[in-house]
Amino acid sequence: QLQLVESGGGLVQPGGSLRLSCAASGSTFDYYAIGWFRQVPGKEREGVSCISGTDGQTYYADSAKGRFTISRDNAKNTVYLEMSSLKPEDTGVYYCAAGTHLNMATMFIWNQYEYWGQGTQVSVSS
């Protein structure tokens, strides 16, 4: 079992920055790949970024490339998502999720992940 807790969301103006954190407990953290997903009302959860558990390789959705940076600190059992140049369309509830046996074809598919946090709201508005 793995428990995940997100933090760091909030209201920010367009062009601003936020750092989200995903703190894990309860199991061997560095074994899991961690993904960040965004959800807005009426839409399915959308994969934003993912970091592998073994070699720390990072992956980004096109919407996040060049603006978001994912990283992990296995000593602290925490994954971070640094978001900059934020746009109104980045608004949503951001969830972190943990999974195993993911690959390039599945890492942005939400139902391939085993454990989820409760989410943190990010609102980008002037």
How would you describe this protein?
It is a single chain. With 126 residues, the protein is an all-beta fold. Helices cover 0% and strands 47% of the residues. It has no helices and eleven strands. It has strands spanning 3-7, 10-12, 18-25, 33-39, 46-51, 58-60, 68-73, 78-83, 92-99, 115-116, 120-124. The chain starts with a strand and ends with a strand. The model has no long low-confidence stretch (mean pLDDT 94).
Keywords:
single chain, globular, four-stranded antiparallel sheet, 126 residues
Helices and strands, in N-to-C order? EEEEEEEEEEE
Gross morphology is: globular
Q: Which whole number gives the mean pLDDT?
A: 94
Percentage of helical residues?
under 10%
**Category from helices, strands and their pairing:** mainly beta
User: Approximately what portion of the residues adopt beta-strand conformation?
Assistant: over 45%
Number of strands: 11
How many angstroms separate the termini? Answer: 40 Å
Question: Count of helical segments?
Answer: 0
The rounded Rg comes to 13 Å
**What's the story with the biggest beta sheet?**
7 strands, mixed
- Poorly predicted runs: none
Summarize the model shown.
This protein is mainly β. The chain has no helices and 11 strands.
